[in-house]
Every structure is written in C-alpha cells, then in structure tokens.
Write a sequence for this structure.
C-alpha cells in the first residue's frame, strides 16, 4: 500500500502557540483530507483539498495542497486545549477510489 | 440526522467465532468504506463499495467479507476470528469523494 509520512509524530505545545504539521508521499495525490480524532471516537473531517496549490481555512485551521501534489500541510493558529487529539492526513491517488491514511500527529496542548 | 451508525460499539470474540459488524448511513452517500485502526496507527482500508451491488478489496481484505445490497447498509463479516483481527473498525461513507464521514467505531477483541 501507499506510505504517507506524517511529521512530527507528536507535539507538546503551550496554549496560544501556533502548530504546523505535514504529510508527504512518494506518489502523486489528487485529493488530500485532514482529520482530527478524539480518544474513543471516529475521525472527523476538518479540511478537504482538491487542487494543487489550494489553500483552505476552517476557523483557526489552514491546510494547503502542495504544488508537487506529493505533500500537504496543516496549520493551527492560537492553539487551545480542545485542539488536543490525533491529526491524520489522507490522500487519494490519481487513479482508484482508495484514501490512504498517514500514521497521525498526536497534539498535546498545555494550558 | 444520524450520519454513519455502527453497531456494536464493543465486542469480544473467541478465536474461530464469526460475527457481522453493522454499518448504516442516512446521507444517501453512494460510497461506503470499512477501515481498521491498530494502536498508534492510521486507518487501513479493508473493503469499499461505490454503490449497491458493487464491492472492492482495499489494502487488507484477508479474513473479511462484505456485501452491499442497499445504499444505506454495508455490513462487514468476520468468518473465523483470529487474534490479528483485534482492532478498532471504522465504517465511513461519502458522496463520490466529498463529505467523507466516519462512524464512531467498533472495538473488537479476539481472544
């Protein structure tokens, strides 16, 4: 299967700080999704990206579809305690219907 | 407006037993998916369906079967449970590649 590398694996930040994480692949994707998963829950879609170079915001979250189509980035501004969770990227290849998921970035926000 | 509903939420099976994980969506989505999530890992696709009567294998289909007789339902069948199938199972649905939504998961332990 496809390998999506997310970095960093985990982050510990102070409340109010900005957060950046990314997802990279050796393959070209035509769609990128970013999800947040709280403990014991299913992933919840945060942002969907459908075009190379696209920059999309959802409140304090901003995600970008990399120009090379092999990467995507998620930024969270002014973090708050409820941002705690695991953030997953998911990518869809140019062919086929499967979405491949990264291994996640675990975010801890210290009040 | 329930979204994606999975039952049961928890289950313990003995090796060799069989069971069906149920998944229902009320959003009239044509695409449905089954993923498994192992501890500390991202989601891996087991099977997916692009419409009633059509199913396809994902990355890790061995030991599972699915059917899609209606738009709403996409059950996942485990015929001979093995310890390697201990995992959290998520069902998801989407309209084409949009509105990707997950259920809250079924936590399965095989002993």
């Amino acid at each position: 299967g496809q390998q999506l590398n997310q970095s960093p694996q985990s982050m510990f930040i102070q409340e109010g700080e900005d957060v950046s994480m990314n997802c990279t692949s050796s393959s070209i994707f035509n769609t990128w999704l970013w999800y947040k998963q709280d403990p014991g829950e299913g992933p919840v879609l945060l942002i969907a990206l459908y075009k190379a170079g696209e920059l999309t915001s959802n409140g304090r979250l901003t995600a970008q579809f990399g120009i090379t189509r092999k990467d995507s980035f998620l930024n969270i501004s002014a973090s708050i305690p409820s941002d705690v969770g695991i953030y997953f990227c998911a990518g869809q290849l140019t062919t086929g219907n499967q979405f491949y998921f990264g291994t996640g970035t675990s975010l801890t926000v210290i009040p | 407006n329930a979204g994606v509903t999975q039952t049961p939420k928890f289950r313990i099976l003995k090796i060799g037993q069989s069971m069906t994980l149920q998944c229902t969506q009320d959003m009239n989505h044509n695409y449905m998916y089954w993923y498994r999530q192992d501890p500390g890992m991202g989601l891996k696709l087991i099977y997916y369906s692009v419409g009633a009567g059509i199913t396809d294998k994902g990355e890790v289909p061995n030991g599972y079967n699915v059917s899609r007789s209606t738009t709403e339902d996409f059950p996942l069948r485990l015929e001979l449970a093995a310890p390697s199938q201990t995992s959290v199972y998520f069902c998801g649905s989407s309209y084409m590649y949009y509105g990707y939504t997950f259920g809250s998961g079924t936590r399965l332990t095989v002993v």
